[in-house]
Design brief:
Layout (H helix, E strand, L loop, with lengths): L1 H22 L9 H37 L2 H7 L5 H41 L10 E5 L2 E7 L5 E8 L5 E13 L2 E13 L3 E13 L17 H13 L5 H28 L6 H30 L5 H23 L3
């Protein structure tokens, strides 16, 4: 645990130094000293949650190298004991780290991320509106999804529901504009559920819809601002409406995959850094490999997020891929070194 805490402190120190230099260029241009300190402090929970598997990997690797230098593994083998005598305490610490990572990601980072986005958008990037891209609007039992086009036009999806949330109608328009409390839509497709025919479809060249709701400032909820229960219900609503759920599904699975990776990183560290001898070459190779694999784990995780957001691979698969790959690699190497 002490090695993990030292590793955490080192990574946070490096982050603060790099981020301070990066954000210092905005001082006096929308960002002051107080906001800069607030920004750095608010980002610490996100960094802890994001880098916890790497912290566990490096901390466990350092600890196991110290045991190898003191010939602890030789003593364990001589006593006829198995490697589980070392693994169980390490896995217990990794379990605490995974629980801490999950709690921070569930209860703290959704709140701090909202404030971070405000500082980033308003004070650093100096955007006039927090709303960018797709908008969601609500008018009674109708839900509007607006995708900006050119010249104040939108591609629009309208979902009409009953008072219990049951789906009554879906309207898709390739182009729409709003004026005088009316939506003027063209190339319209209307879909309704039918008990007799299953689904009724109607196509119209033009359509007018009265609505007090226009293209106002409204932002699509961000996955990094949501708890597990919010993500689960929001995904269900999107699926019920026939809309894509890529980034939300990724965020939901990531909340469970990242903490589990802490346990698997202990196995990987044991396979790389635990030796019966005290040769410096093996130890150096082990710690370099552990750090390199930790960085690769982070890179693959970010790549999976981008691929899931662009719908190139299934989002659930992208969220679990780094954990499964590195966990499988650790199990393979550990079984191999144990002679299985």
């Amino acid at each position: 645990m002490s090695r993990a805490l030292v590793t955490l402190a080192a990574l946070l120190s490096i982050y603060v130094i790099i981020e301070s230099f990066d954000k210092a260029r905005y001082l006096g241009h929308g960002l002051d000293g107080g906001l800069m300190v607030e920004y750095l402090l608010l980002k610490i929970p996100f960094m802890i949650s994001e880098f916890m598997p790497i912290i566990v990997l490096i901390g466990a690797s350092i600890y196991l190298i110290e045991l190898s230098r003191n010939h602890e593994m030789v003593a364990i083998r001589a006593a006829g004991l198995g490697i589980n005598k070392l693994l169980m305490p390490l896995l217990a610490v990794a379990f605490l780290a995974s629980a801490l990572s999950f709690l921070i990601g569930e209860w703290i980072t959704p709140v701090t991320n909202k404030r971070l986005d405000v500082i980033e958008n308003v004070h650093i990037q100096q955007k006039k509106s927090a709303s960018q891209g797709v908008q969601w609007l609500k008018d009674g039992q109708r839900f509007f999804r607006l995708t900006p086009l050119k010249e104040s036009k939108f591609a629009i999806i309208i979902l009409e529901t009953d008072s219990q949330g049951g789906w009554l109608k879906r309207i898709d328009a390739a182009s729409a504009n709003y004026s005088n409390q009316q939506w003027q839509m063209s190339d319209v497709h209307i879909t309704k559920p039918s008990s007799e025919h299953g689904m009724l479809h109607e196509k119209l060249e033009k359509m007018t819809l009265n609505s007090a709701i226009g293209p106002e400032t409204a932002e699509l909820p961000k996955p990094r601002h949501m708890h597990v229960s919010e993500l689960y219900h929001y995904i269900s609503d999107l699926e019920h409406a026939g809309l894509t759920t890529g980034s939300y599904t990724y965020a939901l699975h990531r909340k469970f995959a990242a903490p589990l990776a802490c346990l698997l990183m202990v196995i990987l560290a044991t396979a790389l850094c635990l030796h019966t001898g005290s040769r410096n070459s093996k130890m150096s190779w082990g710690i370099v490999s552990a750090i390199s694999l930790g960085l690769l784990f982070y890179v693959i995780g970010n790549a999976g997020n981008l691929l899931a957001g662009s719908e190139r691979i299934p989002p659930a698969y992208a969220a679990w891929l780094p954990t499964l790959v590195f966990g499988g690699l650790g199990m393979f190497l550990l079984l191999k070194r144990e002679g299985h």
